[in-house]
Amino acid sequence: MRLRNAIFCFAALLAAVPAATGASALSRHTPRLVVQIVVSQMRYDYLLRFADNFGEKGFHALVNEGSLCTRASYDYALTRTGAGLATLTTGTNPSMHGVVGERWFNYTTGEAIDLAADKKAFTVGSDEYDGQYSPRGLMASTVGDQLKATIRDSKVVSVALDPVSAVVAGGHSANAVYWLNPKNGRWVTSNYYVSALPQWVERFNQSDAVVGYSGRKWDITRPLKAYHNDEYTDIVVDSTRGISFDFLMRKKYDYDRLCASPAGNSLVKDFAVQAIIYEGLGNDDAPDILNIVFDASRRIGEKYGTGSIELEDSYYRLDEELASLLEFLDTQVGRDRLLVVLTSDHGASDPIRANSRMPMGLFDASQFTAIISGFLGAQLGPGDWLLKFENRQIYLNRNLIYKKGHNLTEVQNLVANFAIQFSSVSQAITATALQNGHFATGVLSRMQNSYFPRNSGDVMINLMPGWIEYREGVLSDAGSPYNYDTHVPLIWYGGAVSNRDVEHDVNLSDVAPTIADLLGIAPPPAATGTPITEIVAH
């Protein structure tokens, strides 16, 4: 380790020297392919709750032959997909990488800024509009960027259904980033990465393979009594006809519905396998990284809820896909040349149940903003004082506040003190307090870790435990600092990984530095996490 650090220090003095083209200095223990699998919205307790119905070669193989971090959590409040993926790849919190949500607002122009949207980019692989994306909204570099800067021959590839997931996971220097265009079922990318799709992707698109996935029937895989969950939406139980699953993709081209079904995960896995083969990942001495994001799991969880049979069944099907992927990787790459990291971008809240005695409720953002706007009008006079409410953050109309001669900090305090009076709100804190104060522990510390001055709102709120923001068609959501949103699986598997459980607290910002350590490279520059000792101790 000291020798490696010395090499890094020497390399830093030679910053003008281009990155090495080969990988001759790498240890025989260095993985040649890192596969980071992100199962979107997977809570840690799913590993335990569904364990007896998993097969032996999927989740069980990862846990029993790898290393499970039992207490891995995110250490910030606004737990969303973009923020989670950014933290996993950069090794730091939103306060450093800048991803405070999938959208934020420009105070000067009042315009919305989408995390991965880029008006200068255009679609590659389709005539449809679905390619104006790039990672320019990510303010920190990733472990993949660091690998590419260190070993020029290394490759970084990212695959997901959702463009934001694919782009953020891929980082700034990825060789290839692919996502599915839901309008026509084609795999696409943007000209930020390439000017034309590789031939293997064109062949995949021209074969209409995606049509086959969109036409798959989703039936439950087990008798009803074998499931631990007992709620269902699309399952029909008839005393005479038995059990049927009313999840219909009667249209072969119903790609939106495909993306909220297990077939969506199957498609991503199969496309990732093709990427490994045709991009030549893991087939030489230069280490490569493949990011796979299973977005369908999040969409299934949002639609059906954490207590649904549909969600549970989707994990049994994902277990089968993982078994298939691991078998392929062991054959194609070899266990001794492989590192698999499986985790999630965030957890999930339980659905709101009308008859429950548990403290829970639905937060109506539209009603909240209307009341806040009325309050500001009463206090400050007529005017559009509220710019927007987005992702638990209140953006004030600073231009109007300054024009009318008001003190911004005083207006922020006015709003925060009023917002905390709502029964659904647990904390409300101003941007000024988050920027100037220091909160070492607790919820306020996590809220501070979600604050990035340029992108965050003037007031950040946190809802009471059990409360979720109302979104049409969404039963289970994320976005809080509570255990159900922050505690996720973290499993390490491969030739360099010992078979042991890590039972102390682990921050998900530790993932990128740990991968970097195993690859023998420096961590991403903004990383605040540290390598997990039990994982890097060969």
TrEMBL record:
It comes from the Bacteria. Residues 1-25 form the signal peptide. The active site is at 81 (phosphothreonine intermediate). CDD domains: AP-SPAP. Keywords: Phosphoprotein, Signal. InterPro entries: Alkaline_phosphatase_core_sf, Alkaline_phosphatase_prok, Phosphodiest/P_Trfase. GO terms for molecular function: alkaline phosphatase activity. The keyword Cytoplasm does not apply. Pfam families: Phosphodiest. This is Alkaline phosphatase family protein. It comes from Candidatus Rikenella faecigallinarum.
